[in-house]
Design goal:
The chain is α+β, with helices and mostly antiparallel strands. It has helices spanning 13-24, 41-47, 67-75, 79-83, and strands spanning 4-8, 29-33, 56-59, 62-65. Strands 2-1-3-4 form a four-stranded mixed β-sheet, covered by helices on one side. The longest helix has 12 residues, at 13-24. The N and C termini lie close together (5 Å).
Protein backbone atom coordinates (compact mmCIF):
# COMPACT_ATOMS: atom_id res chain seq x y z
CA UNK A 1 0.00 0.00 0.00
CA UNK A 2 1.16 3.52 -0.77
CA UNK A 3 2.45 6.03 1.75
CA UNK A 4 -0.12 8.85 1.64
CA UNK A 5 0.18 12.19 3.43
CA UNK A 6 -2.40 14.97 3.37
CA UNK A 7 -2.20 18.44 4.87
CA UNK A 8 -5.64 19.80 5.83
CA UNK A 9 -7.65 22.31 7.86
CA UNK A 10 -10.77 21.37 9.83
CA UNK A 11 -13.27 23.64 8.08
CA UNK A 12 -12.06 23.19 4.52
CA UNK A 13 -14.66 21.56 2.22
CA UNK A 14 -11.95 20.54 -0.26
CA UNK A 15 -10.06 18.81 2.54
CA UNK A 16 -13.21 16.97 3.60
CA UNK A 17 -13.79 15.85 0.00
CA UNK A 18 -10.21 14.66 -0.48
CA UNK A 19 -10.24 12.75 2.82
CA UNK A 20 -13.60 11.18 1.88
CA UNK A 21 -12.20 10.03 -1.47
CA UNK A 22 -9.16 8.48 0.19
CA UNK A 23 -11.39 6.80 2.79
CA UNK A 24 -13.65 5.43 0.04
CA UNK A 25 -10.57 3.80 -1.48
CA UNK A 26 -9.73 2.18 1.87
CA UNK A 27 -6.43 4.02 1.98
CA UNK A 28 -4.59 4.59 5.22
CA UNK A 29 -3.02 8.02 5.30
CA UNK A 30 -1.27 10.40 7.60
CA UNK A 31 -3.18 13.66 8.05
CA UNK A 32 -1.55 16.84 9.30
CA UNK A 33 -3.99 19.58 10.32
CA UNK A 34 -2.13 22.82 9.82
CA UNK A 35 -4.81 24.75 11.69
CA UNK A 36 -4.06 22.65 14.78
CA UNK A 37 -0.30 22.52 14.10
CA UNK A 38 0.57 25.81 12.35
CA UNK A 39 4.28 25.07 12.69
CA UNK A 40 3.83 22.46 9.92
CA UNK A 41 2.63 25.03 7.38
CA UNK A 42 6.15 26.06 6.19
CA UNK A 43 7.05 22.37 5.77
CA UNK A 44 3.91 21.82 3.67
CA UNK A 45 4.62 24.86 1.49
CA UNK A 46 8.21 23.75 0.88
CA UNK A 47 7.19 20.17 0.02
CA UNK A 48 4.40 21.45 -2.25
CA UNK A 49 6.71 23.67 -4.28
CA UNK A 50 5.32 26.90 -2.87
CA UNK A 51 1.63 26.01 -2.91
CA UNK A 52 0.04 27.24 0.29
CA UNK A 53 -3.60 26.17 -0.04
CA UNK A 54 -5.06 23.04 1.51
CA UNK A 55 -5.34 20.22 0.99
CA UNK A 56 -1.89 19.30 -0.24
CA UNK A 57 -1.62 15.60 -1.00
CA UNK A 58 1.45 13.40 -1.40
CA UNK A 59 1.58 9.76 -2.48
CA UNK A 60 4.92 8.02 -1.95
CA UNK A 61 6.52 11.47 -1.56
CA UNK A 62 5.19 12.53 -4.98
CA UNK A 63 3.25 15.78 -4.82
CA UNK A 64 -0.23 15.14 -6.20
CA UNK A 65 -1.61 18.62 -5.56
CA UNK A 66 -4.97 19.53 -4.11
CA UNK A 67 -8.44 18.05 -4.06
CA UNK A 68 -9.21 18.81 -7.70
CA UNK A 69 -5.96 17.14 -8.75
CA UNK A 70 -6.79 14.05 -6.68
CA UNK A 71 -10.32 13.84 -8.12
CA UNK A 72 -8.98 14.27 -11.67
CA UNK A 73 -6.49 11.43 -11.14
CA UNK A 74 -9.31 9.22 -9.93
CA UNK A 75 -11.59 10.14 -12.87
CA UNK A 76 -8.76 9.34 -15.30
CA UNK A 77 -8.23 5.93 -13.67
CA UNK A 78 -4.73 6.88 -12.55
CA UNK A 79 -5.27 7.10 -8.79
CA UNK A 80 -5.70 3.40 -8.00
CA UNK A 81 -2.34 2.41 -9.58
CA UNK A 82 -0.61 5.07 -7.47
CA UNK A 83 -2.27 3.76 -4.32
CA UNK A 84 -1.41 0.10 -4.92
Amino acid sequence: MADVTIYTKAYCPYCVRAVALLNSKGVQFQEFRIDAQPELRPQMIEKAGGRSTVPQIFINDQHIGGCDDLVALDAAGKLDPLLN
